[in-house]
Amino acid sequence: MRTGVFGGTFNPIHCGHVLLARTYAAALHLDRVLVIPTYLPPHKAGGQLAGGCHRLNMCRLAFEGDPVCRVSDIELRRGGKSYTIDTVRQMNVRYPGAQLYFPMGSDMLLWFRNWAAYRELLRRVVLVAHLRTGEDAAPVREYAAGLAAEGGTVLFAKAPVFPVSSTEVRALAAKGRPLDGLVPESVAAYIARHHLYTPAAGEA
């Protein structure tokens, strides 16, 4: 099966994440997309990180009823820093024979050789990069060609740009401002009910 691996902190998940996951599923003709909240992202430090159970629950609410996008707790169960190679190895065991597609922004692609066991990742997944509108594609395509020369496969897919970030959502939530149109309604209700991202909010 053609399987997308869509990981992220999702702190919180917002409408841009949902749109991207569904766009990749359609553009790449994926049979399923596994939405995977990280436990501890190795490339980020600090910040107001909601507890794993909250981020998992919000992801499940965001994709409730979706026939293709499924939420996985594989990294939360494993604990520790969430290295992609560890997740991919587990996926290869859990879904033998599945072709894994790993979508990412161009900025992430340009950092790819710094990832843990990146050469092994190149053998195990198809990388899918998207370019932002107005972005200089030349260095990204040159970098992708270099990865292809190392035996990897890099595809490019058009992806919509949704003008929202998790940082913005957290800032609004901290002020008690409405999150209409930024996160799914069920996620907004969950954030309000559990007082997430407020100054007094603690880890779950």
Radius of gyration: 17 Å
Mean pLDDT: 92
Helix content: 40-55%
Annotation field: number of helices: 9
What's the total number of strands? 6
> Helix/strand-derived class?
alpha/beta
Largest sheet: 6 strands, parallel
Query: Overall 3D geometry?
Result: globular
Strand content: 15-25%
Task: List unreliable stretches of 5+ residues.
Answer: none
Strand order of the largest sheet: 3-2-1-4-5-6
**Termini separation (Å)?**
35 Å
- One letter per element, helices H and strands E, the order comes to EHEHEHHEHHEHEHH
Q: Could you characterize the architecture of this molecule?
A:
There is one protein chain. The chain has helices spanning 15-27, 52-62, 74-78, 84-94, 106-109, 118-124, 137-149, 166-174, 185-193; strands at residues 2-8, 32-37, 69-71, 99-105, 125-130, 154-156. The protein is an alpha/beta fold. Helix 2 packs antiparallel against helix 9 (185-193) and helix 4 (84-94) runs parallel beside helix 6. The chain is globular and about 50 Å long. The model has no long low-confidence stretch (mean pLDDT 92).
TL;DR?
It is built from 9 helices and 6 strands; from the N terminus they run E-H-E-H-E-H-H-E-H-H-E-H-E-H-H.
Write the layout of secondary structure elements.
Elements: E1 2-8, H1 15-27, E2 32-37, H2 52-62, E3 69-71, H3 74-78, H4 84-94, E4 99-105, H5 106-109, H6 118-124, E5 125-130, H7 137-149, E6 154-156, H8 166-174, H9 185-193
Parallel strand pairs: 1-2, 1-4, 2-3, 4-5, 5-6
